[in-house]
From TrEMBL:
InterPro entries documented for this protein: P-loop_NTPase, TLDc_dom
Gene3D superfamilies: P-loop containing nucleotide triphosphate hydrolases
Name this protein carries in UniProt: TLDc domain-containing protein
Location of the TLDc domain: 1-174
Family: Belongs to the IFI44 family.
Organism per entry: Magallana gigas (Pacific oyster)
Amino acid sequence: MAELLTRKDKKQISQWIGRDSQFELLYKISRDGQSCKRFHELCDNIGPTVTIFYNKDNNVYGGYLSDSWESTGGWCTDLTAFLFKLHSAGNWKPVMFPYTSGETHFKADAYGPWFQSLPSFCSGFCKNKSAHGSYVLYTSSYFEGESFDMKGETVDSVANGHNNVTDLEVYLVRDDELESPWRDSQDWCSQTFQELKEFVANYEPLEEMKIPEVNILLIGQVGAGKSSFLNTINSIFKGGISSRACTGNNLTKSFEKFRVRDPSTKKYLCFRICDTRGVEEGLSIKNEDLGFILDGNLPNHYTFNPVEKASTKAPGFVKEPTVKDRMHVVVFVLDGSTLDVLSEGVVSKLKDFKSLVWFCKCDLLQSPGDLRCTPAFLTKMDKICETVNKDVSKMFTSSVVEDAVNKAADINAIPRSHVLPVKNYEKESQLKTDINILALTALRQALMFADDFLENQYELEQENSQTLNTRD
Ligand SMILES: Nc1nc2c(ncn2[C@@H]2O[C@H](COP(=O)(O)OP(=O)(O)O)[C@@H](O)[C@H]2O)c(=O)[nH]1
Ligand SMILES: [Mg+2]
């Protein structure tokens, strides 16, 4: 069942608590019932929690405890507890009511979450859900300023004078930063950066295939950060922030195969990053066009026609593409800050594209030699995690990022290890080693997947030529 607490609410509560936090829904009155027993089963002895009341007049308020709820105990004092309001009549008006003195909460098996001046329900006071769909909760000594500084607010300004809620949620509050990383990572030092840069700079496609470079196709929502990723890689090799591909409102309308040059050798690197029109509802790149791109039929700079699919008569259309023209790895670029609100249209488009990459036009699985890997780059991690925003090297110890990676893997139905979180250059004016390491790690992975494809192709060619020789 969906959580009601928004990302903005969570960020605000994190700030009040004083550290980056993650919120895990434990109890929800509309899901688990207005039951003291169920509340204690789900929330006892588990750690810090935040309880949120969703008042039926669109007021949202609640309380935070670092102390665990328990079934025995009576009145307790938690010096770090606080009450708060987040929304007043639907408007975002966050105010925190800090602890002053006295007891803060009541712990007993016959009581639900129960703060001094903010009670919920107890076994002698569990009213059935009203005909209007709200729960009538307890209101005695309600927001009276006992133990907490109400900063001039009253029961009327916080809760419109009543405690009838459409829902009530209790979240476990966890530290965002994990003690051990959720994915092994290299040291965030300049040596790691240099090694990765050398790997990419010295990369050459499988020799036997005799192709000058591999093609990495980026595909994803409009605004996901495809052009920014290309700019990030280009900046790394250029040694300063560059902006070759247009980003932001400038929609990519054509098929562009970018090369990156290493100024130290004055040579182009052996890959091309291919940028396409984005995936969007309605005006997305067409399945047929994508098919042509994958097979290598569309020329560089091909301008997509928003209403018609590409024609075989288009100038420069490659009628008989060879392996060098094809896309060797397809990277789904996903905006990590909008995973929760991805429209069904976009999700189904992404699924369509993934099956296109995996299945040939006649809907049969391609021969194993034709299988391409579809890793995902998960961008804008700095936007979903304050810890990462402050320090990109916390990427693999952030539980928020870990959750986003798991979600992206589910959406795209790919292994988690194929989801690579990145942070593109966007507001920075100087290069940063941590950002470089992440981007190059993602690129190295894409190059290795491209090599897998070439290996498969090579094996296939070998098998075919052996078959022909046997027939001869
Ligand atoms: N904060 C943040 N913003 C990003 C990141 N990547 C891209 N952006 C911004 O997102 C917007 C869209 O990016 P763009 O590369 O044009 O997306 P495209 O449509 O996929 O090519 C731009 O304003 C970028 O500056 C990132 O990792 N973090
Ligand atoms: Mg773009």
